[in-house]
Specification:
- Helix 7 links the parallel strand 5 and strand 6.
- The two termini are 23 Å apart.
- The chain contains nine helices and seven strands; from the N terminus they run ββαααβααβαβαβαβα.
- It is globular.
- The protein has a single domain, classed as Aminopeptidase.
- It has a seven-stranded mixed β-sheet, sandwiched between helices.
Length: 301
Amino acid sequence: MKSILESTPDIVDVQWVRGANATSDAPDLVIEIPHGATRTADYEAVRALLSSPLPDGLVDFFHVNTDAGAPELGEAAAQLFVAAQPTRSVAILRCRIPRTFIDCNRRIDASPAEFKEGKVTPGLMPWIVTAEDRDLLRGRYEQYVAATRKAFAALTPAGAILLLHTYAPRTVNVEVDADIVTNIRRAYLPDVVPTWPLRPAIDIIATDMEGKDHAPPAVVGKLRALLAPAGIEVANGTTYPLHPSTLAFDHVQRRPGKALCIEVRRDLLADPFEPFAQMTIGADKVARIARPLADALAAWF
């Protein structure tokens, strides 16, 4: 079958998961993973191209701030989804650009005040100071954003989008500045880290700054019902809002009721959770979330 979406090295991996009876070359579901650069090699490959004086040990911030487990969860959920609905196709888009340098889920030119209001890290990180580095990273960012727009435009008329993220277990209040490595290491000291607020197991990022909830009720309701017996909490907007400084806001606005942005707590997937290392993702842990997630996504169709 002809592919209308293809990978671009160092920018985006496109993985198709098609049901046994799928006939269309258009996806019914797109799973976007904008923080999918989760391996140390992803960080090192881009770091080697940059001339900006980066903070020493910045790789520590990379590991604690990238969405470990999201690619594995996305693939597992897609496989289960098409197994139950064999006429469907899923396209998974995994960004390979580390958000440690530029965040492909941000409006790059939003102001620092907007990012703070949205409780999110900046688009272009403050340690990227040379014009050459900015041009390189912005060029890659534009390529990735163009790929997502192409994928969303290719969706079948009834198609839907899952914007999939993972986050660290606790909300750590640290400024993203030149001292990020020192401060993040201090925040994760054994006697300090338990003092930070524990995040929900899963948070639906769907409520905007005006208090409007954009979550698809059938999907979220089913996900909550399926996870409740396992004692897995599904919150709605507890951690941060669906903010206009993020590109997720645009996706949800453009496809009302057919786009869902979720955060899954990383320690529910990592085996174990290690803030400053490339994490091993546990297959059994992934399966525990992937099955209910796949069944809930079926409520769209």
